[in-house]
Amino acid sequence: MKDAPEEAAKDAAADAKRCPICGKLAVAEFRAFCSRRCADVDLNRWLSGVYAVPGKPEDDEDGEGAPARDDEA
Ligand SMILES: [Zn+2]
Fold first, then answer.
1. Which residue spans within the chain are E strands per DSSP?
2. What's the gap in Å between 26 CA and the centre of ligand 1?
3. Ligand 1 center from residue 45 Cα (angstroms)
């Protein structure tokens, strides 16, 4: 009863999330990243890939928060 062969499956890595940037174990403090640095890298990707879209104002407020209409009944 020492180390089972199944332990080779890296159960620790399977349970813990890995940093998508460098592949290290992620820290809860940085969510899915291992450090603020990697979190920043991912954030930059977002900023340049999503928020950098020109001519796209935020009109999401129309979707949610819409009050129910009691007039139409
Ligand atoms: Zn990282």
1. none
2. 7
3. 14
